[in-house]
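Entry for iron/sulfur cluster complex. Fields follow.
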Amino acid sequence: MATDTKRKRRESAEQKRARAVELVERLDHAMPEAKIELDYRTPLELVVAVSLSAQTTDKRVNLVTPALFARFPTAADYAAATPLEVEGYIKTVGLFRNKAKNLVKLGQVLVERHGGEVPGGRAALSELPGVGNKTAGVVTIHLGVERAFPVDTHILRLSKRLGLSTTTDPDDVEADLRRVLPEALWFKAHQLLIWHGRRCCGALRPECHRCVLEGLCPKTGVKPPKKKP
Ligand code: SF4
């Protein structure tokens, strides 16, 4: 296996693209079941769930959304609510006060400008209250409207460790990933990198000893494990 330094020196753009495809193939082989872990049934539920998941685990979001979705099935229901009422349904979720305010505003904007429906394109989605570029990208790809490679905290971390991007700006990382992977793989790779980040390549302790990407990953920025005395 090439060392980190040797790989950086030797890898051409073409080799990097081939390695990126192999990384995705290996992950797909190991985790063919990888998919979004938020529960939703409609585009509105998807937007709400993804918005709630900022700085909160998907598991925690899934605990609150059944009651939230039952009480607020349409954009008009959020529009007519007070932030305080919405807070009552999401108070175990991080930043719940801001998120409750944004859900009410989201409902109002959807009713006033989009006939109560969730718009399809990423640009229109990213202008909605509480919906940034990443959330808009996640919604877009799951609705099958546009191809994109939205970058969350896991993808940001893994892109660096895997030597696929050197930048820390999510939009720039997305541009790098779009360059190294064929468009047809973006959706799958997005899911797989998140799953791998959650299950093996964690922020504090990447488990390289049991990683299916061992040998393909330069482990950029990963400190070697401390030797036992
Ligand atoms: S666990 Fe280690 S080998 Fe696997 S992707 Fe993360 S840094 Fe690379």
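NOTE: The pocket of iron/sulfur cluster is lined by residues 161-162, 200-201, 206-208, 211, 213-214, 217, 219, 222 (CB under 6 Å).
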